[in-house]
Design a protein that fits this description.
By secondary structure, the chain is α/β, with parallel strands linked by helices. It is built from 8 helices and 13 strands. Bound molecules: NADP nicotinamide-adenine-dinucleotide phosphate (NAP).
Amino acid sequence: MKNVAVVGASGAVGDRMIRLLEERAFPVAAIKFLASERSAGKTVTFRGETFPIEAIARGAFRGVEIVLSSTPGTVSREWSPIAAAAGAVVVDNSSAFRMDPNVPLVVPEVNPHDVAWNEGIIANPNCSTIQMVVALKPLHNAARVRRVVVSTYQSVSGAGMKGIHELETQAEAAVKKRAIPAPSKFAHQIIGNCIPQIDEFVPGGYTKEELKMVNETRKIMGDSTIDVSPTCVRVPVAFCHSESILVETERPITVEEARALWAVAPGVTLVDDPTNRIYPLAAEAAGRDDVFVGRIRQDLSRSNVLLFWCVSDNLRKGAATNAVQIAEELLKLEPARS
Ligand SMILES: NC(=O)c1ccc[n+]([C@@H]2O[C@H](COP(=O)([O-])OP(=O)(O)OC[C@H]3O[C@@H](n4cnc5c(N)ncnc54)[C@H](OP(=O)(O)O)[C@@H]3O)[C@@H](O)[C@H]2O)c1
């Protein structure tokens, strides 16, 4: 049984983390919920009990063993080391520590062993990257992935509570034929639109979100030779990221072989019967934990290239589920250490 703190408890990911701790019957001895001053005094329910949300403070981590944190990067950069110094292991959802060589970046279906070398902080990867590497790992094991071309169709909940609110208010205005409120979270109006920008641009024309997919994929897969060519797009969908993925492998894999690999891969569910209009859909993947794969087909000109469609709930497997799974991996380490 563990003393747990959920940091960012009032947020979109924080809410899912609370539900996941319940659903997965995580062995909680005591639990507390932290966020900013803005949320102090609000309440959350956990296992039928009502708890106050407390403002984060230095003393808040005394006696806490596991912290599940989902705050903006700047907040994590300040507070996750404080929690770790107080003796907790922090599973941090932000981008603050993901590429730190002293911090493991873990997707339990891919590199669970990396949990063991943590020094108090374990990073949870970017949501678009998590679902992609879960799908790529079995292909990599069988035939070595050399190159990936990915286009994402990312939901507004990937931008947190404010992203969900912006879609809802714009959708309501559109239905009522009122003027669409000006965007504040996204660079442009999101209703009726696809925005080819997630996060800021960096020199070279890519966005930070796109470079996360490049760098995090290599770190999680433990292979710095995998090339990733990403285009990240925000779409007016509330939950679940969808991805069109082209993968080139060293050894050609047939569609049948890929299907067989995914059929037994942990965390993957095949949804692939296109002639009956059955393929992964955001509306069906929402609220579920798996990575859904379908529309599998051979490239028309290359035998060592496959294309597929991949969908997962960004707030669950892309964030909260992965974080709680990491905490479960931590529990597994304990008998070996004692
Ligand atoms: N959304 C996703 O799909 C997703 C996926 C993977 C990773 N992430 C990452 O997870 C983190 C949280 O994302 P989210 O989508 O849950 O965002 P969100 O809905 O905006 O929630 C942010 C949380 O952080 C808290 N917070 C903000 N400033 C704080 C401060 N100064 N001190 C303490 N707490 C503070 C907020 O508390 P208040 O409500 O009190 O302001 C809220 O609980 C981000 O780093 C994000 O990049 C998100």
